[in-house]
Amino acid sequence: MSAEPRAGRAPLWRDRAFGTYWIAQTLSAAGNAFAYLAVPLLVLEVTGSVAQMGLLTAVAGVASVIAGVFGGVLVDRYDRRRLMIVADLVRMVLFGLVPIVWLVSPQVWLLFVVLPICAAAGMLFQVAAVTAVRNLVDADRITEANGRLQATFAATAVLGPLLAGVVSARFGPAVAIAVNAASFALSAVGLRLIRLRTAQPADTAPMARERPLVEFLAGARFLWRQPVLRALTVLLSVFIFLTYGFTDVLIYHVTHDLGGTEGTVGIVLGLAALGTVAGALLVAPLRRRRGFGATWIGAHTLCGFAVAGVGVATTVPTVTALTAVYLCCLSVGGICSMSLRQEITPDHLLGRVTSAFWSTHYALGPAGAAILTWAAGRYGVPAVALVAGVGCLLVAVGGVFTPIRRARAPNRRPPHRDSGGPRPWARSAAEAPHGGGVGTPGT
């Protein structure tokens, strides 16, 4: 369990650097919430095929995995904030192309070009974003900071799908994707205003640079040699295989089986996202009181029941409620595992450890999405959801028989603050490129 927060400090929301970062991340998440609904609807509108939706998800997933192999090396070598800005600008331009092309004629092939590149940029962004939290707050506030970030993301996920559903129904899904593109521009501006702290001397161990693959493998070795992180990586890789295509299946279930419209899908995903808000707010006190193991295992147990229940649900309100439970528990489990990795991993390895975890974690996701959506179209959503739900329960049971059950985070001294307070346009030592070498690195 992480250390208790120290008294006498200003509330986290009053921290200028974290607050600016918080706003920038919220803007990015708001756009993602639009794309979350608009991209599948765009494919369904043109092709009418859930299998095509799954194939696009799978292709984007493969790009994420490939980007993850090198993303951690880049994050540990170069300015993390600048990498995030570049990733935002790339996604702004590419997503902006979609509505422009759709004005002339719908071209599904363009999505198979744009989405993988944006997914790769998104992976780089997420690896950098995880490492940035470590350089923004004290070590004993990492879980709280992650919880606040995820709660805000979830709040945007409530309004995002609702608004995306309305926009898609009124103007078409392509316009909703244009909103997504604009959000990345705003996020990039916000990121220009922050400055990261320097890392602790014990966490900064500059070494001669190696080949990118060698540096990535250094992160993978750390991940594999740490018993709790190894167990989390294996079990969560199975979990992502079972659930990576869940959103596509859910949208298909609501529109095909329950007769819902695009607006209905937006309402379901928007209201269900309240579960993510609840999970993000509950995770810190749950972890303090119950410990990492019980919190993580319990969350994934409830995920399994919720996924199975969605398949047999015959009304939209029931599907919404079960999806909210699923997202709540997904939020709790994800924040727990991400926070533990940030606490355990030395700063100079955090990018590569995060990269190695996500590359491994998501490796089975694309295949899972393709199989899940194909099976849903062929055998029906109830059968597929039941199998996936049982698989999630087995993942939770697996946690009981691994070091996850007894996992505790080490106590760390908080990273020191730079004198003079935040200087928005300056470049901190933590952001400066440094050597890689041997070492290693996870959500």
Structure notes:
Mean pLDDT is 77; it is low at 1-5, 201-207 and 412-443. It contains 15 helices and no strands. The chain starts with 15 loop residues before the first helix and ends in a 43-residue tail after the last helix. Helix 1 (16-47) runs antiparallel to helix 6 (173-191). The radius of gyration is 21 Å and the shape is globular. It is an all-alpha fold. The chain has one domain: Growth Hormone, Chain: A (Up-down Bundle), CATH 1.20.1250.
Radius of gyration: 21 Å
Biggest sheet statistics: none
Question: What is the chain-wise order of helices and strands?
Answer: HHHHHHHHHHHHHHH
By CATH, the architecture is named Up-down Bundle
Helix percent band: over 70%
In the CATH scheme, what's the topology name?
Growth Hormone, Chain: A
For this structure, what is the CATH class?
Mainly Alpha
Low-pLDDT sequence parts: 1-5, 201-207, 412-443
- Give the N-terminus to C-terminus distance in angstroms: 17 Å
Class inferred from helices and paired strands? mainly alpha
Give the CATH superfamily: MFS general substrate transporter like domains
Could you tell me the strand content as a percent range? Answer: under 5%
Cα shape? globular
- What count of domains describes the coordinates? 1
Number of strands: 0
